[in-house]
Amino acid sequence: MSHTSPPVPLTSRAGAALKGRVAVPGDKSISHRALMLGSLAIGRSHVTGLLESEDVLNTAKAMRAYGARIARDDDGGWTVDGAGLGSLLEPEEAIDYGNAGTGVRLALGLAGTHPIATTFTGDASLSRRPMGRVLEPLRLMGAEVVARAGDRLPLSIRGSAAPAPITYRVPVPSAQVKSAVLLAGLNTPGVTTVIEPIATRDHTERMLSGFGAELSVEVDDAGARIIRLTGQRELSAQTVQVPGDPSSAAFPIIAALIVPGSEITVADVLLNEHRTGLFLTLQEMGADLTIDNIRETGGERLGDIHVRHSALKGVTVPAERAPSMIDEYPVLAIAAAFASGRTVMQGLEELRVKESDRLAAVAAGLAANGIAHEAGEDTLVVEGRSGQIGGGTVTTHLDHRIAMAFLVLGLASDRPVTVDDGSVIATSFPTFQDIIRDLGGVIDASGEQAA
Ligand code: S3P
């Protein structure tokens, strides 16, 4: 499944207060990893709460092409039958990864140490994104790559029959790069070491340990995480419960904060410390946001998040917090538009290489809706509203989070907001519109809008 469906313009408008209790679909990062590790483990893994979005279904399709048996049960759970490390078969056709950066980068890691050839393709968004960041360490491990200029998709990779373990210092704060090297290390003899100077989401490490991998994490004096994985140790099948995705929860949460009179609960949200930077930032902005029912399942913390409409104030979000909220800046910019004073966001260089150049896409969307802001190379400053806002049409550039962020804007702005293509939301949050509607928000196909 590739994200090539015709564009579906959507329009959101201000309406009643948002009320109710909802659960967002499973975490995207954990869902990809559960299917991949299940496919490499010996035996049958069970996954509940899997995110059934285009990106994750592309990983299911990819792992099937490599020989795993993956099925959805009648009760909505998924079973994954793996055949053990080193078991990947050569796919008969190119693997089309659609819009899914995480999926393809992690799959490159797996493919990079199996002596088989894989060709990966993707949609226009994914074909613009840099793959060199994962190909560089995989080449050091012995993989051969045929790629067009700039290491972009489409590309082909052939893993070495005798991969070499490496010690790799991750040059950019990226969980995808870290994870690709660790997954490559699974089928590599000896110890693969990843040094991560700035901590990023650690779902790969946690899940690898859960599946029985020999993995250790040490923090050095400079605060860098040193992750050591001993390769060629079989993984054993597990049961994985996928908690709700905090990056998806961000949209109804911010909608409730900015729509007057709102009060909602988002249940069962993942609270991994490397993912909760947005919630801390919102609390600093004065949000009435509380978390309870905190518990742990499958090595991850989750809880219920309660939010009420709040008078927000602008804050400075420091660069070091960026990895823990990297996907949340588009929607934080919307919250900032409703805050008093200015919100300064620093350390945003990685936003340039997401599903779109998110810094440019957010700035253009703010401009289209009359929101004063200033975008630098790696900073964004948003001024809280001083006059009427909304009324613009936003170009989504095949980026689900740009689409959802600006639909949230329209729920609280003076005039409706249109996004040029809402179909791309299906890559990560297929129930977004239903959940906003269940809470009382108004999002229509643009053709249906009232005059
Ligand atoms: C992800 C890592 C992040 C994030 C992406 C999911 C992951 O990307 O933006 O949505 O699951 O590892 P980077 O590793 O490029 O920062």
UniProtKB/TrEMBL annotation:
Ranges for domain Enolpyruvate transferase: 14-434
Superkingdom assignment: Bacteria
Gene3D superfamilies linked to this entry: Enolpyruvate transferase domain
Enzyme nomenclature, EC number: 2.5.1.19
Recorded coiled-coil stretches: none
Single GO MF annotation: 3-phosphoshikimate 1-carboxyvinyltransferase activity
Subcellular location field: Cytoplasm
Reaction(s) the record says it catalyses: 3-phosphoshikimate + phosphoenolpyruvate = 5-O-(1-carboxyvinyl)-3-phosphoshikimate + phosphate
Entries under SUPFAM superfamilies matching the protein: EPT/RTPC-like
An example Gene Ontology CC term for this record: cytoplasm
Annotated residues for binding of 3-phosphoshikimate: 28-29, 33, 174, 176, 327, 354
Active site, per annotation: 327
Residues that hold phosphoenolpyruvate according to the record: 28, 101, 129, 176, 358, 401
Recorded metabolic or biological pathway in which this protein acts: Metabolic intermediate biosynthesis; chorismate biosynthesis; chorismate from D-erythrose 4-phosphate and phosphoenolpyruvate: step 6/7
GO biological process: amino acid biosynthetic process; aromatic amino acid family biosynthetic process; chorismate biosynthetic process
Keywords assigned by UniProt, alphabetized: Amino-acid biosynthesis, Aromatic amino acid biosynthesis, Cytoplasm, Transferase
Function comment: Catalyzes the transfer of the enolpyruvyl moiety of phosphoenolpyruvate (PEP) to the 5-hydroxyl of shikimate-3-phosphate (S3P) to produce enolpyruvyl shikimate-3-phosphate and inorganic phosphate.
Subunit note: Monomer.
NCBIfam families: aroA
Alphabetized HAMAP family for the sequence: EPSP_synth
Entry similarity comment: Belongs to the EPSP synthase family.
Name of the molecule in the record: 3-phosphoshikimate 1-carboxyvinyltransferase
Organism this protein belongs to: Stappia taiwanensis
